[in-house]
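Bug #77: duplicate submission created two jobs. Keeping one. Sequence:
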Amino acid sequence: MTALRTTPSPIRVDTPRGDERPHAAFRCTCHASLESLAPRRRAWNTFVSSAGSPIYHSYEWCAVWWHHYGGDREARIFIAEEDNRLVGILPMCIDRLRLGPVTLRLARLIGSDSTHVVCDPPLDVDHARAMLEAVMRRLIAEDECDAVLFGPLADDSPRSGAVREFCRRPRKDVRLLRDRVLGPYASIPLPESIEEYERSLSKKQRYRLRHGWSRLRSENGAVARTVCEPDRALAAFDRFARLHAEQWQGRGRLGHFADWPGALEFNRSLVAAMAREGRVRFCRIVAGDTLLSDEYCFLFGRRAHWRLSARRIDPRWDEHGLGRLGLAQMLQTMISEGVGGVEAGPGRYPYKRRLGAVEHDLRSMLLVRDETSSRRRAVVATRLADLLDRVYYRLWYLRLARRFPPARRPLINAWIRSRL
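Kept job's structure:
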């Protein structure tokens, strides 16, 4: 694991006055370590939450991710202020992406690879253009990056919309090489009451939930419980991870913590860090001492982030629809805590839609230095990345490897870091 890098002082980026910013007190500073910003952690998190951005841009998430996955990357944390008021935070890093004969000096958002996230950078929309101009000038002109990657961006957000608008604007020093949809992600809007949520479901779904829960409770004494106490969080996570692994191993697959290199240690560190802030929730269904289902979530502001689920695989329990009941119980818990919505992760899952999820696009924007050598390397890198995705991930990993369980291995780092 890599220790957090430090630097004696931030690197200032001077920003010229623009049309969107009538005040001259705007400034954007660049910091070469997260550790140097630890004293501003509370202000950082307050701004991210008030801006409506997800937990993936919180200080703790970025710091834990950097500790586990930073490796030999270089941190570039951009902080924008106007009249000493935060108006933007862009936690980024510079990576050396190697694909075959090509090496690309690539800047990307911290936390945007090695685990599932939905990025929505905390930017004041009115100051986004000025901040992004400063960011690009630093990364392209001073750090000599070949390319800058923004993604996976939530396509339904005004903050991500400001990033898209900036990327699509013609510039002299960079050009937009790629603007593509990566796939969907799900979000579940929540009303103020459980009764209102139930009324939003179809008659069939309401019946299945009520009937399934009634049977589970009367026949097995099942109850719903939520673990939220900081001193119980790590033990709860360890129990969740075991059940998650058992579920997927029972299907001849590895499960999230074995699929993604370092995921178990990363998530355990996340739980430890987030529990101190009161953000961890495990929403469970138990029957006696038996854990039947478990939903692993984080709370941030008025939004919940549903990370993973686990349930017991056994003919005795399969007929009850534990996956459906576990999700519904988690949503009811979130409503009771005043949560306004749940970010339910990337991917297309019909069962999430049946329980109220709405799908939105995830988008990737790749800007390339307008220089012949950088453009050529970027074009070759994107083609090699696409080939790797088709042959390794979509053909081998998703199709063929399922037929040969002993041949399954964790995802390779080259694919994880080359999703452009």
